[in-house]
Specification:
Blueprint: H1 9-26, E1 36-45, H2 56-71, E2 76-79, E3 94-101, H3 103-117, E4 138-142, E5 162-169, H4 173-183, H5 191-194
Amino acid sequence: MVATTEKPRLEALYRDTVAEKVKQEFGLKNIHELPRIQKIVVNCGIGKQLENQKLKADIRDTVTSTLSTISGQRPIEIIARKSVSNFKVREGAPSAFMVTMRRDKMWHFLDRLINLAVPRIKDFRGLKDKSFDQSGNYSMGLTEQAVWPEINMAKVNFTHGMHINVVFSNSTPEMSKFVLKELGMPFVRRETDSN
């Protein structure tokens, strides 16, 4: 990720335009009632891939490099607390890597996700709009890191996916969907949407 000192474009869009639309759409009177994006968490599960001892170092290096490149910060390693034979995970072994972004890094990441990475998904027809939990947090998955333009796949020896969670505060699924849609998140168009 390229370091930048400019203010995030999507943050300004949210503050100047989207916030007012949310207030009107949901009848909110106070700015403190507005939903806010608190953080974005990206994680890659690698426990199953680590059964091949020869690839262990390559897998760790690839996942760490990918997450560092797309987020601009170093990922933390998550260690398995229990052994689960069905998932081929051993207690004490690394099972995932995770990055949590807040403030400007979060806004820059969301901008690149919406405008650069998501449109590069193979056979893309829109993101599912049902992946919200009760608190309005949105989850999505990518099957490979190649959708990020900053990843050079010629230098990568292991293809992996990732889970991306956009965490909201003070929100509902309807509000979160409205905010993400106004920020440009390309959700699946339904037949009723076009009418």
